Task: inverse folding
């Protein structure tokens, strides 16, 4: 710690708060008013009447942020749940967020409930959804081009249209810039591993006659950050979080079904210490930490321009930007299954010959049943072998390149006393993904372990006596128990696949609006704005054929452990809107807005908004608003044809489901599933209320307090728990084996279909008693003690549906006070959010779960800072606070719960609390002269580790906390 503080002192460091929040000053100012986010009215003093947070240029530069996500992540309005995510959550599978992409979610309501604008107009969302939620990738927005960011965390559909359910983020671009400015920065941790970030950007602006051209360019590069780079994340926090599937390089286990004593057996050449299971087995285990990336490698390039000109009394504005990002993402190595995706793939008995003793005996083989393969090999041979458990060596790795561009051109002028503006928008985001490692073709792999693969990747033919290749040579069989043999590894490499994915999202838009004084009321002017919009949206997300689940293949994806989302949709939308501001008295102002949106695929909706402000004096504003919002199903939700993913059902939410599938326990279970679009989806709707005040007793003191509430209905998601519950009485949802094409429901293991209830009814028949079928199944097959439930198969077909409602409310508090001293200004600032409630119905149940204080839903989030501003330098000390909340232990296995109990980590209610987190940062800036500025910053100056949790193998919450420890940033700016 002394090292960090010494460096900080040497560079005169103290931080500006990660964000300098613009103050909501209610003083009357006699200056020209421009359009403010949250309203389309111009020329109206709305300052203090709406709860707007502004990050200005000075705040952006002082933050040390390299990306938009870094700039926004610690703002309290973006906390709650996992809607605001970064590349730390990205991975190589369809259940992860897209590689290299980040999202901002207001109030924890999800990224699709937050509308993202640039200069008040829309931007194309990413073509790769997070689940089925479309979102704007904030990494695609070039920070170098941003002048300020306006954040309105309340419903705004009446002004901006659908998607503004939780609010609006409006990025305002630099305009009328003169001169040139170069900014360079370097950041890294104090740890010995290199997690460096490098950035260089340039802004240049010049006047050309009565026009101004501003251009910018930005380059950013970030190294990877692995879990193994820190001692506290290098291994799982619980020994019992093991997987039975070790890496091939670590040596497979013998599948328990092939073991003579019914227990899993380790290979003699396991490279790690054996782990003892709850059944007393000693196995070669796997923990995902060794392959986990806490931040993935990322690089970006962006450029663009803003052009303003006057043409015959008209103002012409054009802005254009292009960005390109390239990133990799990683998921744990894929498990190896049978061709039909069941556990325990079979390998030729020859694989164990490597363990022969000198006298020809084989101790391991003596413990194993050598049986005929359950099915003939792909070539049609009957061979003998045994089952094994393993996963591939390399993490499932994808590389994604995303290109974004946006062109907006508008004209503005006056007609009498009214002003008007009309503009066109063309915005596109396209992404190309390729799997570059860790993905294997299931058919080719199974050919390798039976010696039936040809050197050109084709499968050999069997003529009844010999195997033959049409082209290429027959390869020797691949032995997964052999380690460090190049020839053996080369056979495996022949089965490697490189599936791809291509996506494109496009927005075309046109709008026109008029602003002016409509009438006078009590000798006070009433201002109005009205206009129309038209928008066309198109989205495609097309994976290569080998990563698609197709009914002709029994929904088996050609490659192991790698799914995809197949989506294609388009939509045309028209809107008309109006807004009015009426000064009822000198002190009371009424604002009203209404907007009608019509979708060609979803019909129409009208959303109003009413706002009222009262100024009893120049220093105080009382304010309140009510509005409704609407969000049609996203293009991905409307157009998803088949998405391979995992669905989770919560046995704690439904006792009947728990008794059949979780042995009566309240655990969460994830299973492979297929997600379908649903033409009967309803739109999400929301009602928002905001009440508060802004008080400035002096020019140096500001206090705002706002209460806010959202009632969000018809939330769209999948609901596996509800489908399992409905399947108890609805036989049409119960299927033996694969769900037939065109149908929905649950896929049960085929062996269960031979069991009937006490009335002789099978699981597919109407009136069957599932509890009796479970009892009879246990009697017939005598499964292991941890498998006393109805056995599910795979690829359950689950539709998207309106899963229920959520209600959330809280209080935002902002305060700052400036002391004007002889040597400079000392400012104290605080910004925080207190969640009063966040409730939603549990999927598959009428029960209401209260989320405040549960996993990833802290009750209190805040930031405070002390800032010293002198003529030639600034210093700042700041702190971010996140309150404690419950650990996510509901999804843990019984053996993990037992370990937590033995360690004394659970309280009397069986819960574990994640500690609160207070992290200090320090920064400084020195204005060498009018041209040159030097800045330095240290985050987490005391190198504090994130709070321990056990519900994630990472051992910490990567949304609300981070594992970097102390980090420093140096930056220099030069203005020409």
Result:
């Amino acid at each position: 710690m002394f090292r960090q503080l010494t460096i900080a002192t040497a560079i005169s460091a103290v931080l500006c708060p990660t964000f300098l929040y613009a103050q909501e000053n209610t003083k009357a100012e006699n200056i020209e008013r421009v359009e403010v986010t949250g309203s389309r009215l111009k020329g109206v003093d709305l300052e203090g009447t709406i709860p707007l947070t502004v990050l200005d240029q000075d705040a952006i530069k002082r933050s040390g942020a390299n990306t938009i996500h870094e700039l926004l992540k610690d703002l309290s309005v973006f906390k709650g749940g996992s809607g605001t995510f970064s590349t730390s959550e990205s991975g190589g599978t369809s259940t992860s967020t897209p590689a290299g992409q980040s999202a901002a979610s207001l109030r924890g309501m999800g990224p699709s409930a937050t509308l993202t604008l640039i200069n008040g107009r829309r931007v194309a969302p990413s073509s790769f959804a997070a689940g089925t939620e479309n979102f704007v990738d904030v990494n695609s927005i070039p920070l170098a081009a941003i002048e300020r960011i306006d954040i309105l965390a309340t419903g705004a559909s009446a002004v901006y249209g659908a998607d503004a359910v939780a609010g609006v983020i409006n990025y305002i671009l630099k305009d009328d810039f003169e001169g040139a400015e170069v900014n360079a920065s370097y950041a890294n941790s104090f740890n010995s591993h290199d997690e460096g970030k490098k950035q260089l950007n340039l802004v240049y602006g010049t006047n050309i006659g009565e026009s101004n051209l501003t251009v910018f360019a930005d380059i950013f590069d970030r190294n990877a950050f692995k879990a193994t780079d820190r001692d506290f994340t290098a291994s799982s926090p619980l020994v019992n979080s093991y997987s039975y599937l070790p890496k091939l390089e670590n040596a497979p286990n013998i599948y328990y079904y092939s073991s003579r004593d019914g227990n899993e057996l380790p290979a003699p050449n396991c490279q790690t210490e054996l782990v003892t299971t709850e059944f007393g087995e000693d196995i070669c285990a796997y923990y995902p930490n060794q392959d986990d990336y806490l931040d993935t490698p990322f690089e970006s390039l962006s450029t663009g321009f803003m052009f303003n000109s006057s043409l015959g009394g008209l103002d012409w504005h054009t802005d254009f930007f292009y960005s390109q990002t390239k990133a990799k993402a990683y998921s744990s190595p894929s498990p190896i299954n049978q061709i039909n995706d069941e556990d325990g793939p079979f390998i030729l008995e020859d694989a164990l010959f490597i363990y022969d003793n000198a006298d020809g005996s084989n101790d391991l083989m003596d413990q194993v049943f050598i049986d005929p393969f359950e099915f003939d090999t792909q070539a049609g041979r009957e061979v003998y072998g045994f089952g094994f458990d393993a996963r591939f060596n390399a993490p499932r790795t994808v590389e994604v390149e995303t290109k974004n561009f946006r062109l907006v051109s508008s004209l503005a002028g006056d007609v009498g006393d009214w002003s008007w503006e009309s503009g066109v928008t063309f915005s596109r985001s396209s992404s190309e993904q390729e799997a570059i490692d860790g993905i294997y073709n299931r058919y080719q792999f199974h050919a390798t372990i039976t010696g039936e693969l040809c050197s050109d990747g084709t499968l050999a033919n069997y003529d009844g006596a010999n195997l033959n290749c049409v082209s290429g040579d027959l390869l020797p069989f691949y032995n997964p128990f052999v380690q460090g043999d190049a020839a053996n590894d080369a056979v495996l490499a022949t089965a490697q696949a490189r599936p791809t994915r291509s996506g494109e999202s496009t927005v075309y838009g046109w709008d026109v609006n008029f602003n002016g004084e409509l009438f006078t009321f009590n000798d006070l002017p009433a201002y109005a704005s009205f206009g129309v919009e038209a928008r066309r949206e198109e989205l495609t997300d097309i994976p290569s054929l080998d990563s698609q689940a197709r009914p002709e293949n029994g929904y088996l994806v050609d490659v192991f452990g790698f799914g995809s989302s197949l989506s294609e949709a388009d939509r045309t939308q028209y809107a008309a809107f109006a807004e009015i501001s009426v000064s009822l008295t000198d002190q009371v102002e009424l604002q009203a807005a209404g907007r009608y949106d019509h979708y060609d695929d979803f019909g129409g909706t009208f959303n109003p908004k009413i706002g009222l402000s009262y100024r009893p004096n120049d220093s105080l504003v009382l304010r309140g608003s009510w509005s409704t919002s609407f969000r049609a199903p996203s293009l991905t939700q409307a157009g998803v044809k088949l998405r391979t993913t995992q669905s989770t059902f919560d046995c704690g939410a439904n006792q009947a489901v728990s008794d059949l599938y979780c042995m009566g326990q309240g655990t969460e279970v994830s299973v492979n599933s297929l997600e379908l679009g649903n033409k009967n989806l309803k739109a999400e709707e929301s009602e928002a209320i905001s009440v508060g005040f802004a008080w400035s007793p002096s020019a140096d003191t500001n206090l705002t307090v706002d209460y806010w509430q959202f009632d969000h209905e018809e939330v769209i998601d999948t609901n596996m728990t509800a489908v399992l519950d409905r399947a108890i009485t609805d036989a049409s949802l119960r299927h033996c084996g694969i769900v037939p094409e065109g149908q929905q429901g649950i896929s049960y293991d085929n062996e269960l279909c031979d069991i009937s209830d006490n009335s002789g009814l099978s699981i597919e028949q109407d009136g069957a008693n599932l509890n009796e079928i479970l009892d009879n199944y246990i009697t017939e097959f005598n499964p292991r003690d941890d498998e006393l439930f109805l056995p599910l198969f795979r690829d359950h077909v689950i539709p998207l549906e309106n899963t229920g409602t959520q209600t959330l409310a809280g209080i935002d508090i902002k305060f700052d006070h400036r002391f004007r001293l002889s040597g400079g200004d000392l400012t104290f600032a605080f910004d925080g959010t207190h969640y009063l409630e966040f409730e939603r119905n549990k999927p598959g149940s009428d029960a209401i779960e209260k989320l405040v204080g549960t996993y990833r839903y802290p009750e209190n989030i805040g930031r405070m800072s002390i800032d010293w501003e002198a003529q030639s330098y600034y210093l700042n000390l700041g702190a971010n606070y996140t309150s404690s909340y419950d650990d996510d232990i509901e999804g843990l296995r019984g053996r993990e719960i037992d370990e937590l109990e033995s360690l004394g980590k659970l309280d009397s209610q069986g819960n574990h609390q994640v500690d609160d987190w207070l992290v200090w940062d320090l920064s400084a800036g020195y204005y060498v002269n009018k041209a040159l500025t030097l800045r330095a910053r240290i985050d987490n100056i005391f190198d504090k580790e994130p709070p321990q949790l056990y519900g994630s193998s990472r051992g910490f919450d990567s949304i609300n906390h981070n594992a970097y420890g102390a980090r420093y940033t140096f930056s220099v700016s030069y203005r020409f």
In short: The chain has a mean pLDDT of 90. The longest helix spans residues 770-781. The CA atoms of residues 316 and 411 lie 5 Å apart.
